[in-house]
Amino acid sequence: MVTRLVLVLGDQLSETLSALQAADKSSDVVVMAEVAEETTYVQHHPKKIAFIFAAMRKFAARLRDDGWDLRYTQLDDTENAGSIPSELLQRAEDTGASEVIATQPGEWRLIQALEDMPLKLTMKPDTRFVSTQEEFDQWAEGRKALRMEYFYRDMRRKTGLLMEGDDPEGGKWNYDSENRKPAPDDIAFSGPMQFTPDETVEEVLDLVEARFGNSFGALRPFWFATDQGQARRALAHFITYALPRFGDFQDAMMNDNRFLYHAMISPYLNVGLLDPMEVCKAAEDAYKDGHAPLNAVEGFIRQIIGWREYVRGIYFREGPDYPRRNALNHQRKLPDFYWTGDTEMNCLSKAITQTADEAYAHHIQRLMVTGNFALLAGINPHEVHEWYLRVYVDAFEWVEAPNTVGMSQFADGGIIASKPYVSSGAYINRMSDYCKSCRYKVNDKTGKDACPFNLLYWHFLDRHAERFAKNQRMSQIYANWKRMDEDRKQTILSEAEAFLDGLS
Ligand code: FAD
Ligand code: DLZ
Ligand code: SF4
After folding, report:
1. Which domains does the chain have, with CATH numbers?
2. Per DSSP, what are the bridge partners of residue 71?
3. Please, are residues 58 and 226 in contact by the beta-carbon 8 Å criterion?
């Protein structure tokens, strides 16, 4: 029988992977490789590299136990060819194979590289999602606006999750109005389940320390789940102890609590250790059992079958140029403090320091602190995109780019967001306890202590008035700006300019 190569990438660690399903265990050879090119297309956080390598090694062991002929190349192997295509070419030479079966990678760059190989390629769709790309494209076709909410409703109908016949459970599709409570005094959840590194993980940590120890971010302590069993325990821990309050404090941020009631399962979902339907069913069961309220469960399920599926649909529909878009023509360099956390703005300092320590920040920190600041300050969105792709353990381009370039930086011109996610310090103050311990005063709108978000907010609106003043959802804000005394406007704008000059 002819031998074919079956490629399994570092974020394709699922036994249900379409490439494995299409292969023949008795004659095909599975190829997995730790390669320099994947570790350096951006300089990832060391925790992210360690997570992926450890999970790859454990998954490889599982496939071997399951009877697959598996060729695994470690990063420090002397024969390491350095990239996925060149590893495949070497394995083709070793085995005499001339055909590769792959599951579509989550990044255009790698799809292109596989297509350029001088080997026959069978590229299977990635079926580890609720919707197919065809389904998404059909839904999007002919629509004026691609709003997530309507796509999400179709996914509820498709999956039957939280449905009573044709109607949504409880009579409403979306319970977000109950989900915007500010930071509480205390959080009754000790955070995500943590795992002590075993021998495989320790070996990887040593390798990563030696090779990537000088990159942005702390490698240790390392406590992520690195196999399916651990990821499932982490999920169960979240469902039991955090899901009931997930909705209430989903948008809150706190100085002394990095996870609040968030799940910290995105890395596990994105590399394939958890399946989205398994996660959503566990949450739905918690609702049916009376363990978690509807606002929490609906909000959580929406993130997964709504946002996660929707951003993937956008990434593949929009094409390879998407991460390069810059609709607002923002050109400023990313400030150095994104790499050090060294800024007197407490919200930014906290979000960035946490990112360096954990390779994790939750959604509102990403959107309304680091993302909001970059957008207000007019940072080049491609630099912002590369920062997010580097620093977060869950960052793969299909999910990171739409969130950063589209949702957060409005650089796609409004495909994802109907208006830019910008706010002054007031929003951050309402949702967090950051401002209480900040050197700036959130209530000061001008002057030496004025919160920079307050200055930059008006600067952003003023410089983009032509584009946004006619946006119905922003007309009230522009009316306020118009009504403001001319001298005050000029003071705000010149103080904002001075602040921006200080950034470079
Ligand atoms: P929870 O708040 O507990 O939510 C549960 C799950 O819902 C997440 O695990 C995730 O799988 C899913 N989810 C929630 N929001 C989104 C979303 N907007 N898009 C896709 N899935 C979502 N998420 C990534 O997985 N990878 C990224 O690289 C990434 N980059 C982002 C960049 C920016 C600028 C922003 C604003 C958001 C980004 N997100 C990204 C979305 C979101 O911030 C993370 O999914 C979430 O913080 C992961 O933490 P969690 O598991 O604790 O999430
Ligand atoms: C992110 C990553 C890293 C750091 N290293 C590897 C690797 O050595 N081998 C591998 O197969 N995959 C790795 N990955 C994941 C890929 O970058 C990912 O598959 C693509 O970006 C597509 O999502
Ligand atoms: Fe951030 Fe402004 Fe609050 Fe300081 S005062 S924490 S800069 S929002």
Report:
1. 5-124 (3.40.50.620), 133-191+242-318 (1.25.40.80), 337-503 (1.10.579.10)
2. 31
3. yes
Taking the centre of ligand 2 as the mean of its atom positions, its distance from the CA of residue 399, in whole angstroms, is 14
Sign of torsion over alpha carbons 490, 495, 500, 502: positive
Q: Which atom of ligand 3 is nearest to the CA of 369?
A: 1
Per the CB < 8 A criterion, the answer to whether 418 and 412 are in contact is: no
Q: Give the N- to C-terminal CA distance of the chain in Å, as an integer.
A: 63
The contacts of residue 315 (CB under 8 Å, 6+ apart) are 322, 397, 398, 399, 401, 402
Question: DSSP 3-state assignment of 251?
Answer: coil
Q: Is the CB of 10 under 6 A from ligand 2?
A: yes
427 CA to middle of ligand 3, Å?
A: 10
Nearest CA to ligand 3 atom 5: 442
339: Cβ contacts below 8 Å, ≥ 6 apart? 216
Q: Which region holds residue 381: left if phi is over 0, alpha if psi is between -120 and 50, else beta?
A: alpha
pLDDT in tens, 155-213: 999 999 999 999 999 999 999 989 889 988 889 899 999 999 999 999 999 999 999 99
